[in-house]
Task: inverse folding
C-alpha cells in the first residue's frame, strides 16, 4: 500500500484527480474511491469508475473543508495490460482552490494475459 499525506490549505474547493498512464502501451484501470473517517468503517462518500473516460475521474471533497481534517481517502485500483506488457503510473493530483498543490504517484508493471495488478493507495488529510 502506498501512503501519502497532504495539508488542507484551500479556502473554497479541494478536488482529487485520478490519472492512469501506460508506457509503452495503454493499460485498463478500474478503481473504487472511498472517503472515510478514522472512527468508522462506513464510507462518507464512495465512487467507482475506470480510466476509459478521464473527465469523470475527479472528485470534490465535501464542504466546509475544515471538516475533512483527519479524514482519509482509500483508492483501490486494478490495473491490467491491454494490448501488450506495459509499465503503468497511477498519478493523483490534489487541486486546492484550482491550483495543483500536490501530486502523488505509484508505479508498477502488468503482463498481457496475466491477472490484474491490485494497488491500494491511502491519502491522509491534515
Result:
Amino acid at each position: 500500500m502506498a501512503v501519502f499525506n497532504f495539508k488542507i490549505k484551500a479556502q473554497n474547493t479541494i478536488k482529487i484527480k485520478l490519472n492512469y498512464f501506460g508506457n509503452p502501451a495503454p493499460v485498463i484501470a478500474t478503481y473504487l474511491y472511498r472517503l472515510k473517517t478514522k472512527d468508522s468503517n462506513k464510507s462518507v462518500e464512495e465512487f467507482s469508475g475506470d480510466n476509459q473516460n478521464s473527465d469523470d475521474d475527479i472528485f470534490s471533497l465535501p464542504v466546509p473543508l475544515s471538516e475533512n481534517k483527519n479524514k482519509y481517502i482509500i483508492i483501490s485500483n486494478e490495473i491490467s495490460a491491454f494490448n501488450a506488457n506495459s509499465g503503468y503510473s497511477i498519478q493523483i493530483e490534489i487541486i486546492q482552490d484550482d491550483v495543483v498543490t500536490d501530486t502523488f504517484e505509484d508505479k508498477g508493471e502488468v503482463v498481457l494475459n496475466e491477472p490484474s495488478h491490485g494497488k491500494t493507495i491511502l491519502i491522509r488529510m491534515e
